[in-house]
Amino acid sequence: MTEQDKFVEKVVLRNEFATEKQLQKAKKILEANPGKSLIQVIVHVKFISKEQAKSILKLYEKKRLKKKSVNQPQESSPINAGPAFLDDFHGGGAPTHTPAPTPTPAPAPSPAPQPQISVSHSGGSFSSLEEYLLHARGKNASDIHLNTDCKPLMRLHGSLIELGGSIFSAEKAHQLLFSALTPEQQQQIQEKKGLDFSYIDQQGNRYRACIVKQRTGWNGAFRIIRRTPPTCEELGLPENLKRLVEYHQGLVLVTGPKGSGKTTTLASLVDLINQQREDHIITIEDPVEYVFSPKTSHINQRQVGKHTASFSAALRAALREDPDVIMIGELRDLETTSLAISASETGHLVFGTLHTTSAGRTIEQIIDVFPPDQQSQVRTMISESIKGIICQQLIPRKDGSGRALALEIMFNTNAVANLIRERKLFQLGSVMQMGKKQGMVTLDHSLYQLVKDGVIDGQVAYYAAVDKSRFQEWAPKKDF
């Protein structure tokens, strides 16, 4: 193996990105594919991500340049850490272990050496916040928790997993967490004893962060955000949901419990408009998660607490900015909800989220926000303005490989509108079952299909179901 391959092997093992057994498998593939490097092989077989690979290669380049400056060896070509190099596994012939061809782009030019976060530590023994974040991102975790009097934790496929290492003292937790804050934010958090904010690391990766004061010290949670919104296809959303972005007026809601991917689904739909229409899009979020790159639309993104005082204040201002599409991170209060409904009736397409688990409960919660003497009028307004409701949950897969998306989808039809106006939402499930041809589906049907397909466990579906009678055969046995 080359010096680079030996360095890569050492870093991968030390970081526990792959086991020795997996690396032996990678070496066999490398032997069968001369001209390739170990880093290309382990990216190709998905032992590490391209992002991790680029960090490792840049770390090796730093070491190589440092050694060169001391020993002055003969000139050698720089290490290429570009995505084309990492993708170019099949250049010069397909590997012997798989028949699947991939594109063969030319290697990208080497970037100038930059200071990089070291990845040569085992999980749990890092010295900086960014090392923890990079490690969790490399493991495809959704969140990382750094709390006083606890070991570091990451959430992987919905479960919390210890990273190892020592328990954080109050001083260590404070040092790590406050390194993410600007001087202004440090002043705010000392006054409020808590702060929600967006954090961007040195490599440009984004995180939704929350730091709070508790009995023993400071706790921090960081939600790991992709650089770009995923597509509907990547999320596994059905094709018929795309009809919701074809409207130019109305209300579209994405709902579900915390951590169910509401923001990601919302961002995917909004980015679809960004690709297809020449619209003015305004997003109001707390904090901003996905950063949209304008494609065919013009996009403004505002963060509550940083660019505006509240959701309602930003929404009032947005209505004077000639928007076509408004995305509201959360319908939190009466004023925001009322403004959102009014905007959806006056020529704007409005997207929002709620923490509800079914279409019926979503409509009920919106109506219940209003005083009793206004609820009849609100029912009529919602029956006319609502275009669709997507309720989603992420359910652990039976094989432990991740989580599966269970969806409830409601589109507004004459039958649905009548039920909303006439206060007969208890019949909504039956109407949705009859509306299967229109693309509607209940959460329970989605869960049942996932169980039938062997994707999720029946008992897990039982606990997630709205009407548990359909899942009685998987109900937990009671001990008497």
UniProtKB/TrEMBL annotation:
<dbReference type="GO" id="GO:0005524">
    <property type="term" value="F:ATP binding"/>
</dbReference>
<protein>
    <submittedName>
        <fullName>Twitching motility protein PilT</fullName>
    </submittedName>
</protein>
<dbReference type="InterPro" id="IPR001482">
    <property type="entry name" value="T2SS/T4SS_dom"/>
</dbReference>
<dbReference type="InterPro" id="IPR050921">
    <property type="entry name" value="T4SS_GSP_E_ATPase"/>
</dbReference>
<feature type="domain" description="Bacterial type II secretion system protein E">
    <location>
        <begin position="319"/>
        <end position="333"/>
    </location>
</feature>
<dbReference type="Pfam" id="PF00437">
    <property type="entry name" value="T2SSE"/>
</dbReference>
<dbReference type="InterPro" id="IPR006321">
    <property type="entry name" value="PilT/PilU"/>
</dbReference>
<feature type="compositionally biased region" description="Pro residues">
    <location>
        <begin position="98"/>
        <end position="114"/>
    </location>
</feature>
<feature type="compositionally biased region" description="Polar residues">
    <location>
        <begin position="70"/>
        <end position="79"/>
    </location>
</feature>
<feature type="region of interest" description="Disordered">
    <location>
        <begin position="67"/>
        <end position="124"/>
    </location>
</feature>
<comment type="similarity">
    <text>Belongs to the GSP E family.</text>
</comment>
<dbReference type="GO" id="GO:0016887">
    <property type="term" value="F:ATP hydrolysis activity"/>
</dbReference>
<dbReference type="InterPro" id="IPR027417">
    <property type="entry name" value="P-loop_NTPase"/>
</dbReference>
